[in-house]
Design brief:
about 20% helix, alpha/beta, about 220 residues, two-stranded antiparallel ribbon, 8 strands, six-stranded parallel β-sheet
Length: about 220
Amino acid sequence: MQFQTIKIDKTKTASIDVDPQKGFSELCPKELPVQGALEIVEELKRNHSKASVRLVSRDMHPPGAAWEAETPEKMLEPVGLPEVDIKWNPHCVVGTAGVELLPGLPAIRDYDFQINKGIDPDAHPYGAFYHDQADTLSTGGIEFLHAKQIETVIVGGLALDFCVKKSVEQLLDAGFKVILNLASTRAVFPDNANNVANALAEKGVILIEDAKGLE
């Protein structure tokens, strides 16, 4: 994996924190804790410092959704619904601590744009920019970026191998230059993190080791 120093125009650059929530950290161990999740906060804030606008997405799930695993052992079992592929432990349920942002991040309303996804009980979208698997029902994030004349988006958040990956792919499809700061993300399955990052690089994503790689 090769890293490079990237020159950016801050006025045309945005950052997005993808689902940096307690439900994906050891603060909520019965949900979907991602190893090292709390370590990304400072690096996410460094991403913010390189951008003119800051976006954040959150999983906002209802209780009893169609994708909920009855027991942890049933997680990742196929579901087969049009908008639900596999089962997950209950996580980021509205009204619980799991929805909240990781400690140390800005207040939700201090971001320039917030995206809430996954509220429908029969849908479990991964990417931040669409409510459906086919990428047809927009969350408004891409339109916001276009309205702000953004060309480059710095991405971090949780988790690299699911919601971050899909969000990056959606940004690429929308024509943005995408920079993935690996220090500001962690994977559900850490052993596969390099493979995911390399596959995204092959699609045109610029990988940086940390925010020091941005000028």
